[in-house]
Amino acid sequence: MTWTEMRRVRVQAGEFAVVDAGDPEAPPVVLLSGGLTSSYVWRQLVPLLSPWMRVIAPDLLGAGESGSPPGADLGLAAHAESVRALLGELGVERFALAGHGRGGGVAQLVAVEGGAAALILIDSVAFDGWPSKTILELREGIAEIDDAFVRSWFETLFERGMGHRERLSDVDLDEFRRPFEGPDGLERFVRVVTHLDGRGLVGIEPRLAELEIPALVLWGEDDAFLPAELAERLGEALPRAAVALLPGCGHFLLEDAPETVAPLVFQWLRSQYLGITHEHEEGPVTVTLGRRPPEDDRW
Q: Contact, 49 vs 266, CB < 8 A?
């Protein structure tokens, strides 16, 4: 059973499982998770956005509830092509994009091809910083993995990837690793890991510089997989970027600090994408941000 209602949409590369919430006529926002996670990453953000926007959160092919076609290209550039095909099937031409981890790399490749009106990158793969050392080591030993290894690997992923591991419940952890359990799941895991590449990201700076759209770069200051320096590089490459580093948080920002990140993303999209100015609401609303002091503060 999936965590929420999902629709199935077939494109040439395979069949997507997609969260499609909110008014179909509302401005769309596309949420892209990484290849070894799923749309479950966005579970606390979807209800916040859907009253205002059409929220489209697919599981990338090979991940979550989406299809994992044997022999299919699950590389970064191929994911970008299949996401654009998905948006075509859904009749979406102009959209906001948000990507986490590898989904952020896909979001960059989708954005530079046009159609994006706003871009959010959360602890995103970027430039020559991907594949990370952790992923390279995983790929080297891929022939020796078994079910027990996969279960342990997901535990370690979130143990290292969060600043506040206690905030992820056993139920949540089980949901993330569920698609990769059993013989079919193990085969799926191997297929995804084998295709964890960074094609298209090295040398992408000139194309990012052409994106004259509002961009928000959010990062866990203690990200163990993708160093916070990548956030600053993305902020420098994107001409209209705001950069925020959250202290005490790791790679999985929406697990570490949903009470901060979800309202921040919501208010930023309302302002920068929907063009709705902030109105005072009764009662305290606190959003705490922290970042290393830069020479010129972009926030």
A: yes
Report the Cα–Cα distance between both ends of the chain, in Å, rounded.
41
Give the other-Cβ count within 10 Å of 137's Cβ.
10
E strand map for 4-147: 7-11, 14-21, 28-32, 54-58, 95-101, 116-124
E strands within the chain? 7-11, 14-21, 28-32, 54-58, 95-101, 116-124, 215-220, 241-246
Q: What is the pLDDT of residues 170-227, one digit of tens each?
A: 999 999 999 999 999 999 999 999 999 999 999 999 999 999 999 999 999 999 999 9
Give me the sheet containing 7-11, strands edge to edge.
7-11, 14-21, 54-58, 28-32, 95-101, 116-124, 215-220, 241-246
- The domains found in the chain, sorted by start residue, are 7-272 (3.40.50.1820)
Which residues, 6+ apart, have CB-to-CB distance to 172 below 8 Å?
Answer: 40, 255
Residue 163, both tokens: 């600043």
Q: Which of 293, 135, 118 is nearest to 221 (CA)?
A: 293
Backbone angles phi, psi at 264, to 5 degrees: -65, -50
